[in-house]
Protein 1
Amino acid sequence: MTTVLTYGTFDLFHIGHVRLLSRLAELGDELVVGVSTDEFNALKGKTSIISYADRAEIVSAVRHVDKVIPENGWEQKRQDLIDHGVDVFAMGSDWQGKFDDLSDLCEIRYLDRTDGISSTKLKEQLSDPVSLDVDRVREALDTLQQVVDNYRGLR
Ligand code: C2G
């Protein structure tokens, strides 16, 4: 049995998280996810909107996930890899290379992030709804421009 391990805050759970967990699940038979506690987030300089308990429950409810453990600090990874018999440790590509020192214990993988979405971006959009409208207007104008270009191409 191949066990995969990853870590994350998973605040404001979004499509980038879902796609990562889905792809991680394809790497093995069991997916273990370390969810950052609120205290560890403070150490990371991150304040999550959703509490650890709720973030852990949300991640646990994802059908790709088999087990959720608390991530209390940077240093626990090596012991977690041993305790859970991990075969593949994988993170999103924004962590590229950061955990290669663990390669003596298991395979290390970095999977492409999903572009255009992040918990930070969501927080910014929620705190400034106008910016969300601006983004939508920009997308609509881009689509309109494509229609015009296609029309011109047909004439
Ligand atoms: N992610 C992604 N695509 C996005 C956003 C995030 O693939 N658009 C991935 C990240 O690369 C990470 C995971 O989803 O692997 C969780 O992201 P965060 O919740 O932002 O977690 P992070 O703050 O990166 O915590 O010890 C490691 C840390 O706990 C990782």
Protein 2
Amino acid sequence: MDKLIITAAITGAATIPSLSPYLPMTPEEIANSAIEAAQAGAAIVHIHARRPEDGFPSSNPDHFREILTKIKAKSNVVICVTTGGSAMMTVEERAAVVPAFKPEMCSFNMGSINFALHSALRYLKEFKYPWEKAYLEMSKDFVFKNTFKDFDYLCEITQANQTKPELEIYDVGHLYNLDHLVSEGKMKPPLHLQFVMGVLGAIRGTPEDLTYLTTKAQVLFGADNFTWSVIGVGAAEINLSTMAIHMGGHVRVGLEDNIYIGKGKLAKSNAELVEKIVKLAGMLGREVASPNEARTILGLKGPDKVNF
Ligand code: KMH
Ligand code: ZN
């Protein structure tokens, strides 16, 4: 079994600032949080940017540049940049980071889903910034669009920039979308799958759902042709991580996906969530991969070939 690759998702479009005071907001905070997560054991950090003044999701290359250069100056961690962005962005805006920065990895969302965040309105009554309430309300009518045309565009730019796609699989149909791209020769194994489980609008985070996704992926692609990791959004994070550690998969945790370290207790940092996974891996007898070991496992081009 490969060593365990831990990814830390530092701050994301689905996590609005009012949910947790510990969410990194400015480029400096995001970079520092990523560096601490790497020190705690993350081999990869997944990066979104925010407008420093109010935390609104940003596609501004200057915000990304500041984050990426600050992380690279202090850490050897693998940087995986989002192309998922947020609900307000076109696919071209979301993916502009790939040609601009030529990162080692980027996210590649494998299908369209409802991506609903409005259930947070049941308990969240006070907001730090004016945009947050409308953002949650609007998500009730939001389709996260990732069409076959979008896939073609992302395939072109990831290949042109030697950026390894982290294939975000939110539901079983997304495996079939990917299988279609493989059959057309547009996507070439070895593939790296990231099962995103627990978004309202897609598959839930139950043990049988993860078993089904991993089994289906083996049937479609062959066990030797892919690596996989799991994101348990919200409450499912630690349970699904435990399953993945045991099954030979990899794990992503972080404040983008889950803000709690225990029942009702907010995580104070991304590093705290990573530390919990490192402890779990130790208890289950699985060694944790360093960034360079993750590069070997995933076949990445290396930090000397990025553009930042
Ligand atoms: N926020 C996660 C549920 C992306 O950035 O492209 C999914 C995600 C997608 O991380
Ligand atoms: Zn993301």
